[in-house]
Amino acid sequence: DGGITQSPKYLFRKEGQNVTLSCEQNLNHDAMYWYRQDPGQGLRLIYYSQIVNDFQKGDIAEGYSVSREKKESFPLTVTSAQKNPTAFYLCASSTLGLTDTQYFGPGTRLTVL
Amino acid sequence: GENVEQHPSTLSVQEGDSAVIKCTYSDSASNYFPWYKQELGKGPQLIIDIRSNVGEKKDQRIAVTLNKTAKHFSLHITETQPEDSAVYFCAALGASGSARQLTFGSGTQLTVLP
User: Fold this and answer.
1) Are residues A104 and B93, on separate chains, in Cβ contact within 8 Å?
2) Are the beta carbons of B43 and A90 separated by less than 8 Å?
3) pLDDT 10s digits, B6-23
4) Fewest CB atoms within 10 A around its CB: which of A110, B66, B68, B82?
5) B19 to chain A, minimum CA–CA distance in Å?
6) Is A107–B41 a contact, with Cβ atoms under 8 angstroms apart?
7) Nearest-angstrom CA–CA distance, A69 and A56
8) Is residue B19 within 8 Å of residue B82, measured between CB atoms?
9) Sign, CA torsion A28/A77/A44/A88
């Protein structure tokens, strides 16, 4: 998992509640990403950030929000507007050079009760 | 945008045999193709990657080939071992505009039978 931490590992939420997932990296990477993974499917991009105080929507941003106040931190908030939030959430980071290799954290499994 | 298709979705091989997973991509401007291995309940781990100026790359039992003309790339695992059992994802990185995004295939569940 190489310097990327996500917490908590498991999270349970009642319908109608907002919840925030933590992602921290100590790799000095400029870019950070949030993906959603559903069973039997690939990873889909929610949001990404290439610089502090700036971020862009990915393919499935509706119902989610992010902030990037520090280079090493990129928290994701799952709002009550997200219709089907139960999923495995993965955070990643990368440099912005030619390699662009993305390294992933261990993930957070969110379950809506 | 980029579209990546991955086949097969499941693959079972006998220990010691080879496994091949294939991916196709749609955006001819894509220039970077990583492969990730994901074990149950964990985040994906990069196992090998290839850039568009290279046709083949090998790392011990793992190799990746890239055919830019046909827009497909493949993962080859030789002498498979039970610990190779996992889900494998291919991905392609766009090279233009805001497309510094990886587009992932849907994954291949590889099972190595002892």
Assistant:
1) no
2) yes
3) 999 999 999 999 999 999
4) B82
5) 20
6) yes
7) 14
8) no
9) positive
